[in-house]
């Protein structure tokens, strides 16, 4: 596991909406690793005003020493390296990256339904997600997690993969997505165990107890 780097000479500013979404895991990583950063919360109308000035015309963005970067997974990996939550060993890093991409891929399938304007088509897409797509993708994930073993995604040390898994599974099982019942996660006991272990990690629990998103 990489060691936490000093950020005394680095000014970091994360900008995103007031929800976990695609930045919750980065906020968590910085908090767990004790990395100082400015957490800028943007509302919808403010986003529209700044959109054209953003790289990729999207959020989140991360400003490091005055330079702005986009892409949530790149930002998460940077946060993981600063926070000591990204493996320094190349093979362990490969495992971490693989799991991150698997989790993100499942989330992207759901995000596509949010952008669907036709309500009837959206519900059909959601039904397929709940009955086929999510069980298939999380079945692959469950298999890999069982192979790796341990209390977390990669053995017994917390990584950014665990933080992403926590954020994604929480979102997908809160019952806020019409057509996707929380029960779809029930067969995946290893995934659920890792989510609980992550949620109960001292710094993660402390983060949520403070009311942060």
UniProtKB/TrEMBL annotation:
Swiss-Prot/TrEMBL GO biological process terms: glutathione metabolic process
One MF annotation (Gene Ontology) recorded for this entry: glutathione transferase activity
Pfam family membership, one: GST_N
Limits of the GST C-terminal domain: 89-213
Domain GST N-terminal: 10-87
Name assigned to this protein: Glutathione transferase
Species of origin: Fibrocapsa japonica
């Amino acid at each position: 596991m990489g060691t936490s780097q000093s950020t005394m000479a680095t000014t970091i500013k994360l900008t995103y909406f007031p929800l976990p979404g695609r930045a919750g895991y980065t906020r968590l990583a910085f908090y767990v690793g004790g990395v100082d950063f400015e957490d800028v919360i943007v509302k919808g109308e403010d986003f529209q005003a700044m959109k054209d000035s953003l790289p990729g015309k999207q959020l989140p963005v991360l400003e490091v020493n005055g330079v702005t970067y986009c892409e949530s997974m790149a930002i998460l990996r940077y946060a993981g390296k600063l926070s000591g939550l990204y493996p320094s060993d190349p093979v362990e890093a490969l495992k971490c990256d693989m799991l991150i991409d698997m989790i993100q891929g499942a989330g992207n399938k759901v995000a596509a339904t949010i952008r669907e304007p036709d309500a009837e088509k959206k519900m059909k897409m959601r039904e397929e997600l709940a009955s086929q797509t999510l069980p298939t993708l999380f079945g692959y994930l469950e298999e890999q997690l069982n192979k790796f073993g341990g209390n977390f995604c990669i053995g017994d040390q917390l990584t950014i993969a665990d933080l992403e898994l926590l954020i994604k599974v929480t979102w997908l099982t809160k019952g806020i997505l019409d057509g996707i019942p929380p029960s779809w996660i029930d067969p995946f006991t290893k995934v659920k165990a890792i989510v609980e272990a992550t949620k109960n990690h001292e710094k993660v629990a402390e983060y949520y107890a403070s009311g942060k998103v």
